[in-house]
Here is the input.
Amino acid sequence: MKIGRFVLVLCCGAGLVGAALAAPPERAASSRAAPRALLAEAARADSPELRSEAFLIVDQRSGESLLARNADRVTPIASITKLMTAMVVLDARQSLTEMLTVTEADRDRLRKSSSRLPIGSRLSREDLLRLALMSSENRAASALSRYYPGGQAAFVKAMNDKARRIGMTRSRFVEGTGLSADNVATARDLSRLLEAAATYPLIRQFSTGTAHTVALRRGAREFRNTNPLVKDPGWEISLSKTGYIQEAGRCLVMQAWMRGRPVLVVLLDSFGSRTRTADARRLKKWLADQPWEALVMARKSHAG
Here is the structure.
């Protein structure tokens, strides 16, 4: 029996259809940057043993921070960037059925990373958007930004303009894939990015699909979601995004609800290939066991 849905964002370091699931946009309350800063004093003795260096958990309905550590630290965000890329693409209202070509310009010359999308592949804008969100395909994201009106320079400007409009005050974007370590944000800003992205039905749908097959020149190829939790029946995930570069580490973003309340969660700078999902499971269990209203009231009392 499902206990509800909640919103989850993880960024790890060592780095078309569907009803809207996001709650009305609400800003996270400010939190104190201190080691394992549990803002609900009553829960201090029962904090989850998360292995992330920075995190932020916000009760979205009240705007209260339930748990935080280093939430205002600026850090590279890797492929979490692709959530902003997707919003900018959809805001432009370009045809989703238009066929686009992956070219040499989309090859990763910065990190020399591989891709399952061969140069010369022709896919619809819709398929490229799906692969960028679900499988974190860098060439797909790059092609989407190249075909933006005005090209990549106009695309990057639109990304930063969008960031300012949704309240990402300490964020900066320089390209649309997340391969550059100069794409930076804070955990608090990422909660705002997640909140905004969750208002787009296609982003929710594409980012949580378990697999998708596309026709390429050498035959059909299946792409899978980079977040294994989307296949877990114990989770009801309505938005997901992963990412990794050395400077940002392993990243994971999810949205759901728990016990009828929307929660925004940002985890940053964990380590190891499985730590991000392990932290997500620990956090989910901790949140399920907490007296929700008591935590919110304790936070309000603590804030004076």
